[in-house]
């Protein structure tokens, strides 16, 4: 798999800044104007991309209320059916081309998670720059092959995947000749408990599958996302809403704009701090090194007098000989009179 690729002209991967995705999901609350405001908030908060979900209740499930379609897995959505949930959560398709125009005017990458073949073709007609495979679709290998054949970069979440599932999905992309694939470590719990995140798995995925990795984060707050970047994440995805108190299917684990901005700011800070492997000193470090310890004459010394541990010591600042040479100074004779506070140097003794 490629460790770097482009989405709508933005380079993602090795040696590049983290690609930050704001997930709108159901937070528009079926209000087009609110969807537009979320896109603008994503731009203001520093996101690189806005992501939607492209489905209708009938393209993702059945309108059926038997036991198989009841939500009862201990989620925040328990007590309803899949079809009823998606009826409130889906993003109307007629909005999406217009929202793409808004996003691109704002300078954001616009893309989506498709959930069936018709939604893929719909997004193809919109000319999106990449595709997102949601966690619950990762095991649908024929569907992944269909998307991979489009030749666009693919970002996959692994929230319900075992190692074999991930390998199968990557193999499907390779069979279709598509190696522009990234994996997002994900924990499909909403919100996700910190102790279930296991960021080390993200690092291992990169090593095991030789693929770009990142995090789709459903925890509360920004700490986990920033930590993931410190561990090498090149993509971060977080849900964004205007106000959690406004409600909605995903509101409880979504960020508000200021929180999202604070997260992005922290990510950019940690990226600067990660830097590169170097043992060179910056100019500020070189200046600070002047305050390190070195050998100084600490008492007046007459010509011919011996240097001792009483008249030569290791002290700050660092303008004298390095302290490791103390044994080569002690017992030697002074070449001239030396006053207290003189940096020790090779030319001062015989």
Automatic annotation (TrEMBL):
Biological processes annotated in GO: carbohydrate biosynthetic process
Annotated Gene3D superfamilies: Aldolase class I, Antifreeze-like/N-acetylneuraminic acid synthase C-terminal domain
Pfam (any one): NeuB
Chain ranges of the AFP-like domain: 294-350
Domain of life assignment: Bacteria
GO MF, one example: N-acylneuraminate-9-phosphate synthase activity
Protein name: Pseudaminic acid synthase
């Amino acid at each position: 798999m490629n460790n770097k690729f482009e989405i709508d002209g933005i380079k993602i991967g090795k040696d590049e800044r983290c690609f930050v995705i704001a997930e709108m999901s159901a937070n528009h609350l079926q209000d087009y104007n609110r969807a537009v405001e979320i896109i603008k908030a994503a731009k203001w908060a520093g996101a690189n991309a806005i992501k939607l979900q492209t489905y209708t209740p009938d393209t993702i499930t059945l309108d059926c209320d038997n036991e198989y379609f009841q939500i009862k897995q201990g989620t925040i959505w328990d007590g309803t059916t899949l079809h009823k949930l998606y009826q409130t959560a889906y993003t109307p398709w007629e909005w999406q081309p217009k929202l793409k125009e808004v996003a691109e005017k704002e300078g954001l990458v616009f893309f989506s998670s498709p959930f069936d073949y018709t939604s893929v073709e719909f997004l193809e007609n919109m000319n999106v720059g990449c595709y997102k495979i949601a966690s619950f679709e990762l095991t649908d290998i024929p569907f992944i092959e269909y998307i991979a054949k489009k030749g666009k970069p693919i970002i996959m979440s692994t929230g319900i995947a075992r190692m074999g599932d991930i390998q199968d999905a990557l193999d499907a992309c390779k069979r279709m000749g598509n190696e522009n694939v990234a994996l997002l470590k994900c924990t499909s719990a909403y919100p996700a408990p910190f102790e279930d995140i296991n960021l080390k798995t993200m690092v291992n995925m990169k090593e095991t599958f030789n693929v770009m990795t990142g995090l789709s984060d459903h925890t509360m707050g920004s700490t986990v996302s920033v930590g993931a970047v410190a561990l090498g994440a090149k993509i971060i995805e977080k849900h964004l809403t205007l106000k959690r108190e406004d409600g909605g299917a995903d509101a409880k684990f979504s960020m508000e704009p200021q929180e999202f901005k604070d997260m992005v700011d922290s990510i950019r800070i940690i990226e600067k701090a990660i830097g590169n492997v170097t043992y060179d000193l910056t100019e500020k470090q070189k200046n600070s090194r002047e305050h390190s310890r070195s050998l100084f004459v600490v008492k007046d010394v007459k010509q011919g007098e011996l240097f001792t541990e009483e008249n030569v010591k290791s002290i700050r600042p660092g303008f004298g000989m390095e302290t490791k040479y103390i044994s080569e100074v002690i017992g030697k004779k002074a070449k001239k009179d030396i006053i207290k506070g003189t940096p020790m140097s090779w030319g001062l003794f015989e």
